[in-house]
What does this fold into?
Amino acid sequence: MAVAIKIIIADDVQEMRDMIEKMLMTSDLDYEIVGFCANGAEVVDLMQKKKADIILMDINMPVMNGLEATQTICEKYPQVRVIIMSVQQESEYLKKAMLAGAKAYIMKPVDIDELVDTIKTTYERYQFLDTAAPVKAPQTHHAQVISFFSAKGGVGKSMIALNSALLMHDKLGKKVMLVDLDLQFGDIALMVNKQNELTIKEMFDDSPIKTMEDVQPYIHSYKSGVDMLFAPKDPESAEYISKDQVNEVIELLKKHYDIIIIDTGVNYDEVTLNALDHSDRVIIVTNLEVTGLKNTKLSLRVMQSLNYDHQKVKILVNMTNDKFGVTKANVQKAFNYDVIGYLPEDIKLVRNATNTGIPLAQVKNASLIKPLLTICQTLIK
Ligand SMILES: Nc1ncnc2c1ncn2[C@@H]1O[C@H](COP(=O)(O)OP(=O)(O)OP(=O)(O)O)[C@@H](O)[C@H]1O
Ligand SMILES: [Mg+2]
It folds into this structure.
């Protein structure tokens, strides 16, 4: 039988504590509230008497603030998962909280779905810390790495990478990591409406990455089974990130996921080329515009010079439209690599998904999803 998750709610504002309690009551979580605290010192006290699995911790509290309490508690009880609740949007605060040992954070005003999802994923992810929990045989993964690349911007690479990640989990049952390796202009965070999260930049800034635990604080759990590493927020950061750093992280991730999807940058810099080298599959995304097709031909020439074979490199044609002169038959003829699929153009649908931050894969009956799922099935065979 599953054990109820023991939760402490710490916030100096009574209404906030009540609201969180109500939110939990309406959720499907199996939980037990072991106490309410109005400041950090109370949490430290309570922890001595009652063991919690999860502490929902406000930052700004009197007597002892949430950051100090987090530090004290995480040193003493490493199995506790502190989830910071904060109005502070500055990544500096969040960074401090994560360095103090917090495992996750949510922004105020608290969204019920985000709250419940964060509690679930944080509890599950750190179950290995819990000596009281039955010891599960360590799961060994050896991820298949799939990169989406294009030599031209704006062809739909990120939209496809994001939705493929979701479909591979939701429909094909894989544990997926999506890495936004478009280090200069990555916009996966924006596409899922999570612009305030920590990114690859902070991960490499903070300390050397040696184990998966060093990577964990920077991973955004989009939902249980789909994790993401976001690209830096500013383009300048890209030049301080080396291919070796990225390779080390990918090697660590490989042991923890079934599939790693990489959304690459639109260039042939060393980080991108290395990601392609480390990929089992490289999917070149193209549209049907003459300039797009020309650039795709040039990319394929590069793939050939890198000795990537026909198993590894595939072409995905996006934004097909019957009104264009270029037909599917013409496309396959133009390339000496296989076209694994075609996705129709649907401006309204895709734009709406991007603007609302709700990916297509989450939208019921979205037209593009069926062909994309077929492509995903082919890819992971
Ligand atoms: N099948 C499609 N139908 C209609 N619009 C699409 C389709 N695919 C992508 N788009 C639109 O094309 C634009 C570019 O998409 P996206 O950002 O995914 O491309 P990208 O190749 O990653 O671009 P960038 O080079 O900027 O990273 C977006 O405005 C998106 O809404
Ligand atoms: Mg992109």
Notes: Residues 132-138 have pLDDT under 50 and may be disordered. The radius of gyration is 22 Å. Residues 290-305 form the longest helix (16 residues). The chain has 15 helices and 13 strands.
